[in-house]
Automatic annotation (TrEMBL), chains A, B:
Its EC number is 2.5.1.22. The active site is at D242. PROSITE patterns: PABS_1, PABS_2. It comes from Columba livia (Rock dove). Residues 88-328 form the PABS domain. It catalyses: S-adenosyl 3-(methylsulfanyl)propylamine + spermidine = spermine + S-methyl-5'-thioadenosine + H(+). One of its GO terms (molecular function) is spermine synthase activity. The gene is SMS. This is Spermine synthase. One of its GO terms (biological process) is spermine biosynthetic process. It is an enzyme of class 2 (transferase). Belongs to the spermidine/spermine synthase family. Pathway: Amine and polyamine biosynthesis; spermine biosynthesis; spermine from spermidine: step 1/1.
Length: 333, 333
């Protein structure tokens, strides 16, 4: 083992210990008493990890001896696994480090629009991750229920428009409720291809055909479709916006995210019946600035609207999520 | 900046860069092409973190240049914050690293039985952590509902025994349902003291007095209480075991966790009416071995029992949790 020691004048010291097998450890001692030990090794198998644990036990014991038991706090964090085929770390929307119990890469492809991953989690089932963003897991019926109005709506005989929703979750659940017609507009055929194969618990068989008795799926950018419907005067009882948080579109006309969001909202309101409802996901509850900005957009639409919001626990998100219901302000009679 | 480089014969190389301000970086290059960069600095404020982000942006750009854009995958993880007053890392029962949005230490005391922490999370409210184990957050009504039978039970006019439950959540919810009498047996007065002050959303005012119109709280080890009740022939409609996963008891007679669990179960069955129900939390859904072992204990009780289980998403746990319902096997008529 090779030892290298660096002494700062005012900042304590750093010792690096290098082993012949390629592993190494840093021991960083700060003058105010904080001691950080990092061990880095290259192991593919659990055996290596057990050895590391035993080594750390010994380090901890020795430290307790050296400090005569005067250590106030000891905390050992689980090892961070990097560089393998399986990436277990998908930070939350509010930037926290969370490790998932992912044990298999089920699907990993780049579409013309985004990177599409479907990863298997032992507890959540398959998880759809679009461009690094956890979208939906097979465990997340709570998401689909929330964006459909939390069971308080009667979809029977209704006209429904879904924007995005390529995982098929919303479509699958609404079709069960005997709507008149559901139109889903999803830009990315490859999301549908991946989900119909690997997100079966979410979409059932609804994506096996792009057309059913009471639904159709259009593989298109929703902006021109919305414009067409608005022009034709086609109206819906429900518009459900399930687009990704970071917008993708073939229309280059809108530069900023907020302008794009407002365009979608304005167009959606144009095709929404006077007593219709618009449902969408908002953001993680901790991103209060983003939520406030979103609500400000709602006061800037072509027609006055009102809204309510609900906070829901979506299992695979590991953070609470806000969902919005928006409707046209009733006109004076 | 000081640079130290170590070359292994077969394991690539490690460069350490040390800055005058006490921060340092490791650059570990493995022969098969994995490059790991770790930066460690001592910063109390966000400004330092922004600087670190900018530095890492530059490192990433430079790496892309050096490799002529031939980098297959780049992943940057959020910084791990160590050594501060606030500890944001409370690994899951299945050993995963998860970061909580904790911004305040509300309560931190050692009782004769355990360490009691109540930490504030922006999204989950206050979280009770007993000896490092996340017990319950103010957001976790789902836990209390699950361990009460998920809304399928009628507690009106019933005799209920709660084992543990010091956060007051179960007691608070059951008292609303007009039971005949609820007896709660909690060993640790300090848990009650902390929770009645800082877990108000969970326990309401129910812990303000240890006795109410239809409830009493006994500050005792539940083992002797159960033995006393069994001897007296006192029977309950519901027994709810909300004891901590790792048992604490003043009775030294039971060595192993499983023996202790079986003792509790046996004694609970003795005070449970023939048509009564016993509810308890099991474990995280991924710990299948522990769940199987628990279920094996159920076949080794003094009387035959049957059970069902349910998997529930408890918001602050960041993993799915299994709850059990156990009842005495109906006798032949």
């Amino acid at each position: 083992m090779t030892e290298t020691v660096h002494n700062w004048e005012d900042h304590g010291y750093l010792a690096t210990y290098i082993k012949k097998n390629g592993s190494f450890a840093n021991l960083r001692i700060h003058p105010h008493g904080l001691v950080l030990v990092d061990l880095q090794s290259y192991n593919d198998h659990m055996k290596g990890r057990e050895e590391v644990d035993q080594l750390l036990n010994k380090v901890e014991e020795r430290m307790q001896e050296l400090f005569h038991g005067n250590i106030k706090r000891v905390k050992r964090l689980p090892a961070i696994l990097r560089g393998g085929v399986i990436d277990r770390y998908w930070p939350t929307a509010d930037g926290r480090l969370v490790e998932y119990d992912i044990d298999e890469v089920v699907y990993d492809e780049d579409s013309p629009f985004q990177n599409i991953k479907i990863l298997h989690s032992k507890q959540f089932g398959n998880i759809l991750i679009l461009s690094g963003d956890v979208n939906l897991a097979e465990s997340d019926l709570a998401y689909t229920q929330a964006i459909m109005g939390s069971g308080k709506e009667d979809y029977a005989g209704k006209e429904v428009l879904i924007l995005g929703g390529g995982d098929g979750g919303i479509l699958y659940e609404i079709v069960k409720l005997k709507p008149k017609m559901v139109t889903m507009v999803e830009i990315d055929q490859m999301v549908i291809d991946g989900c119909k194969k690997y997100m079966r618990k979410t979409c059932g068989d609804v994506l096996d055909n792009l057309k059913g008795e009471c639904y159709q799926v259009l593989i298109e950018d929703c902006i021109p479709v919305l414009k067409r419907y608005a022009k034709e005067g086609r109206m819906f009882d429900y518009v459900i916006n399930d687009l990704t948080a970071v917008p993708i579109s073939t229309s280059p006309e809108e530069d900023s995210t907020w302008e794009f969001l407002r365009l979608i909202l304005d167009l959606s309101m144009k095709v929404l019946k006077q007593d219709g409802k618009y449902f969408t996901q908002g953001n993680c509850i901790n991103l209060t600035d983003a939520l406030t900005l979103y609500e400000e957009q709602l006061s800037r639409l072509y027609c006055p609207v009102e809204f309510s919001k609900e906070t829901v626990c979506v299992p695979s998100y590991m953070e609470l999520w806000v969902f919005y219901t928006i409707w046209k302000k009733p006109t004076d009679i």
